[in-house]
C-alpha cells in the first residue's frame, strides 16, 4: 500500500476504509479567474480542480491549497492536498485531471502524501515574486505577467529598503483590511530586488502573507526607488506608521506564487 493510504480498520462488524491523501503541485494563469476560491462574481481555481477530480475519480472531495491567491494572481508552484476514498494511481490521476482542466490550469506533479500532510497547515514558507516591466518599450508578451512601470527607479535604493523588511514584524501598514486580522505579525526570511534586462523582480520569502501584502510592499519599494518616498520609510512603517504612508498597491497580474516550502532550508 502506498505511503498515504492507511489500512482498513474494524468498526463493529464492518470495515471502514480510510482515505488516500494526495499532494499536487499546480501551475496556473490566474487572469481568467476570481482567485483560488469562487466568488459571487466568478469561478475560482479550487472549484475547477474539485470538479475535475469528481469527473476523473468519480468522487467528491475538498481540495485545500497552501494559500488563497487573489483574482488575477498566478502560480508556478501552488501546492494542494486532497483525499479520496478509492485510491487512484497518481500519474493516471494527474494525466486525467490535465485532460479535463482548462488550459490555464495544470497539474505539474501529483503524489501520494503522508496521511497528516495538509497543503496549508504543513507549509513553513512561501516564495512570492512580483514582476515589473521598466521603461517605455511595449512588450506585448509580458503584459499578462508583468506590471508596466515606465518611470525611472534606482534599484539600489529599492534593494536597501527591501533588506529592512527581513525579520519578524507587524506588517499592518502593508496590508489591506489589517483591522480584520487578529495579528499582522509575520516573518520574512528574505527579501530581494533584482533585474534582468528591463524586468525588475521583487522576491519575498516568508512564513505567511497578509491580504495584498506583496503588492503593497512592491508599490512602496517602487516609490522609494523613484525618490518619491524616503529610504527609511520601510523602517518607519514597521515601527507603526499608518498604511496611508506606504506606497500604492500594484495590480495583481504581476504577482506569482513561485514555491511553497515544507521543510528547511528555504532556498529560492
Number of strands: 12
CATH fold label of the largest domain? Alpha-Beta Plaits
CATH superfamily of the largest domain: Pseudouridine synthase I, catalytic domain, C-terminal subdomain
Give Rg in angstroms: 21 Å
Please tell me about this protein's structure.
It is globular, with a radius of gyration of 21 Å. It has five helices and twelve strands. Helix content is 20%, strand content 30%. Strands 3, 4, 5, 6, 7, 8, 9, 10, 11 and 12 form a ten-stranded mixed beta sheet that branches. The longest helix has 14 residues, at 213-226. The two termini are 34 Å apart.
Task: Offer a quick outline of the entry.
By secondary structure, the chain is of the alpha+beta class. It is 20% helix and 30% strand.
Amino acid at each position: 500500500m502506498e505511503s498515504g493510504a492507511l489500512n482498513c480498520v474494524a468498526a463493529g462488524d464492518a470495515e471502514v476504509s480510510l482515505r488516500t491523501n494526495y499532494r499536487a503541485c499546480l501551475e496556473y494563469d490566474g487572469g481568467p479567474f476570481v482567485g483560488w476560491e469562487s466568488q459571487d462574481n466568478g469561478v475560482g481555481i479550487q472549484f475547477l480542480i474539485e470538479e475535475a477530480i469528481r469527473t476523473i475519480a468519480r468522487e467528491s472531495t475538498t481540495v485545500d491549497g497552501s494559500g488563497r491567491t487573489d483574482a488575477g494572481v498566478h502560480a508556478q508552484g501552488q501546492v494542494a492536498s486532497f483525499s479520496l476514498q478509492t485510491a487512484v494511481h497518481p500519474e493516471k490521476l494527474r494525466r486525467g485531471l490535465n485532460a479535463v482542466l482548462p488550459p490555464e490550469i495544470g497539474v505539474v506533479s501529483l503524489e501520494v502524501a503522508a496521511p497528516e500532510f495538509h497543503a496549508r497547515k504543513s507549509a513553513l514558507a512561501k516564495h512570492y515574486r512580483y514582476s515589473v516591466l521598466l521603461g517605455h518599450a511595449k512588450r506585448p508578451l509580458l503584459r499578462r505577467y508583468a506590471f508596466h512601470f515606465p518611470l525611472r527607479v534606482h534599484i539600489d535604493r529599492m534593494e536597501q529598503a527591501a533588506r529592512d523588511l527581513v525579520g519578524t514584524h507587524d506588517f499592518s501598514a502593508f496590508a489591506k483590511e489589517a483591522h480584520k486580522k487578529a495579528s499582522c505579525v509575520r516573518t520574512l526570511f528574505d527579501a530581494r530586488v533584482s533585474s534582468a534586462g528591463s524586468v525588475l523582480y521583487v522576491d519575498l520569502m516568508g512564513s505567511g502573507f497578509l491580504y495584498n501584502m506583496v503588492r503593497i510592499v512592491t508599490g512602496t519599494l517602487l516609490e522609494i526607488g523613484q525618490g518619491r518616498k524616503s529610504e527609511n520609510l520601510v523602517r518607519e512603517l514597521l515601527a507603526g506608521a499608518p498604511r496611508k504612508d506606504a506606497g500604492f498597491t500594484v495590480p495583481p497580474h504581476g504577482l506569482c506564487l513561485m514555491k511553497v516550502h515544507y521543510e528547511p532550508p528555504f532556498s529560492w
